Structure formats: C-alpha cells, structure tokens
Amino acid sequence: MQNVYTVGQVNRYVKSKFTEDYMLNRIYIKGEVSNCKYHTSGHIYFSLKDESGVIACVMFAGSRSGLSFRMRDGQKIIGLGSVSIYEKDGKYQFYVKEAVLEGAGLLYEKFEALKKELEEMGMFSAEYKRPIPRYVQRVGIVTAKTGAALRDMIHISHRRNPYVQLILYPAQVQGEGATQSIIRGIRLFQKQKVDVMIVGRGGGSIEDLWAFNEESVARAIFESEIPVISAVGHETDVLISDYVADLRAPTPSAAAELAVYEYSVFQSRLREYREYLQKELLYKLRLKREQCIQTGDKLRLLHPRQKLLQKQQFSDELMERMTRSLLHKIQTDRELLVRYQMRLKAYHPEKQVLEKRQTAERIREKLNRQMRYQIEKNRHKMSVFIEKMKGLSPLEKLNQGYAYVEDGNGQVLSSVSQTEKGHTVAIYVKDGKITAEVKEIHLGGMI
Amino acid sequence: MTVAQEQEKKKEQSLEELFQELEIIAANLEGEVNLEESFRLYQKGMALLKQCNDRIDKVEKQVLVLDEDGETHEF
Question: Residue of A207, A359, A439, B60 with fewest CB within 10 Å of its CB?
C-alpha cells in the first residue's frame, strides 16, 4: 500500500498525458451531432457519434467564431480541436475550436473559386449596381411560397406601407431544380412592372442555401433590368447572390424594410413640403404687401400738394427764424447796453475820489504804524544802551573793589611814568577818597 | 411638347423624380422671384404634391402570385 494517489492527482496525471500527445492536441474528428445544447453561457455542449461510438464535445463561447452555422442534432460535421480530460468528471472530451458541415469543405472551395472568378469578371463592381428606388409601388419577390421568410416580408411590407403591391413568384429554393426555378422567377419579373425585386429565402444549411451560390443564378441577377435585393438566410450567411445583387439584405425581413418605404414617413414628407410651400408663399405675399405700403408712402410724398405743403412749411420756418433772430439781436443789444452802463458807472469820478481818499487813509495809517514802530524800536535800543552804560560806569567798577587813582593835578594816573617817588596821589574807592604818597615805583609786572 | 405629352411624361416620372422637382420648386420659391412666379411655383408644387399622393393607389394590396405564363392571380 505504498503508492496511493488522490483522484485529483490521477486525473491531473492523465490530463498531462493527453496534453503531451501531439495528435490529440490538434485533431479533426467527424461524426453526427447529437444531444446538442446551446447553453445560456454561450458554450455549446454536444456529442459526436458514429456507428461505433460516442465522444462528448464542447465548443466554448470564445470559439464560436469558428462556427458559421447553427448546430443541430443529426448534422454530420467535422470538428477541429483537442481531446483532453475534464478533471471534475474524470472524463475525456473533445474541445472543438472550429466546426464545418461535412462536405462543406468542398462546397466552400467551390464558393471561393466562383466568387473569385465572378469578382475578376467585374460582376460585383459598384458601377453595375442599380440604385434601389426609394418609393416603390410594386415589389417582386422570388422565394418559397411557404415558410417564415415570405410571411415576414409580407408582414413587414404591410406594416410599413399597405399600398405597396407585392407580387410573389413561388420559387423552389432548395433541392433539385431550385436554380432553374429561381432564374425563371427573376426572368419572369423582367416583363412585369415592378420597381424592385427581392430574391431570397430563410435560413438553412449551406446545402439548402446553395442555389444562391450558383453561377447561373448570379448571372440572372446581374442581367436583371430591375434592381435586385438579395436576402438569403441569416445575417451570417453570405452568398454569391449577395455579392452580385444591387443590394444585400442580411435577412428577408431586412430586405422588406429596405425595399418598402414607410407610408407615414412619406405622408409627413408631403406635409412638410406643403407647409413649406405655403409658408414661402405667405412670406412672399407679406413682403410684397409691405413693398406696396412703402411705395404708397413714397408716392404720397411726391404729390404736388405735399410739395406745396413743404414749401409752406419752409416759408413758415423762415419767418420763424427771422423773427427769432431779430428778437435775439434786440436782446443782445440790450445786454450790451447794460454792460456799458455798468462799466461807465465803474469809472464815475465820485468813485475815484472815494478810492483816492481810501488810499490816502491807508497810507496815513501805514505811516503811523511805521512811526510807532520806530519809536518803540529806538526806545528799546535806548534801554539796552542804558543797561550797557550801567556796566561801563567807573563807579560800578569801584563797587567791585577797583580803585581810581589821580595825580596831584586831578589827572588820571594810569602809568608809572606819570608819577614819581614822594608824589601825592588821590585814590578813590567805593565809599570815599584816600590821599596817599608814592613810596616806590616798579616798572612792569603787576606783582 | 403638347400638354398630353407633358402629362404623359409626368406619368412616367417616379415619385423620387417628383420629389426632386418639388425640391427645385421649393428652392426657387425661396429665391428672388416675383409674386406671379411665386404663385405659379406654389400652384405647381401643390399639384405635384397631389400627384405624389394620387400616385399611390390607396387600396390595401393583397399579395399577387405570378405564374409561369407571366399572369398574376390572387395569393
């Protein structure tokens, strides 16, 4: 009991073996579809079976671009993908990346070859495309008498415009003789008065749709005098008839929408035109009426009476102006006079005398003021002198301890040379006189 | 061109052509035209509108079937 593994380990191991296998990684498997389920997630779950067995298959939503048809039970297909283990269930399954209907490969090649050939011949060229008339009255339809395609087209056409005539050529659209039937329909409509033709059918397998990939059908469409809308299968189905037709509709319903205009839109267009025309005409009328009024006004202005009135008015105006200017003149003269009077008054002698008197008075006052000032000034000066003089008085000096010396003759003694030993001198001090005799004389130096 | 011919020509005109003509009339009416011309254009426009409307056979159409002889029958 040494080597025991978990389920997960085993499943992973087996898966790795599958993954390592070169062939299983990219393999084509053919078989019949059964138990096909389109899951809401977008993944498709189904089985492929043959007489000998079954293999579980899944096509993930991400690979859906590799599927150009709707998968159904019973279809024989060839799938391309890888075979691997789904670990959760421990089952192996076929992971399909692309799938084609068996036999489609050959058909596809045929399709591509014809498409290339016709394209080179210029049959798809835009210059050959006839415009689809916008307002059709009769629409030819080449399709099967029974089936959703015709029902949808009738329904949509009636809803959009019940007055459009639909004419059906009940064609055989698949199987033996379909090609001839479709061509016959297209040709028969050439003699009918139809504005446009819808050639098509509802969805089906590529084999079902194949008649619309036939060269003879393409030629019939190309040669049609009447514009052709090709409407085959679903949106994803693109056929030779789509390339060669004047317009490709993704589905028969869409073809009816493209071919049949909406009656209500048409009516509103008519209404718009009607309103527009009315509006324009009313505008023109109003404009002209205004012009009439204006012209009338102009004419009235040109009437002779009007001229006379104008002249009268002019003369009235002149008169008025003259009167006004005369009055004005009088007024200005009067004003001038008043001004002169005032000026004269200003120069009256009495006034001059008064002025002179005033001037004299002013001068007198000025003089007085000046005089008073001078007196005051000198008085002040004098008091200053008095003070000064006070300071200079010899008596004042005596007060300060100085003495005044006179010789015997009453002369001021100011030098040693003026006296001699034995002379009598008078010395005056603050409060009296001293008579003294000169005892000695020294020249020079105070002490 | 006689009146009859003109009418014949009108008959041949598609609704699309009639609308084109209306467009031209509308443009002319918008432009500098005198009052008489405006009236004429207006009348013509109204006639064209009527023609457009009349062109449609206002009977609900049943689908017809085309047989091999090119004959049509009720569906």
Answer: A439
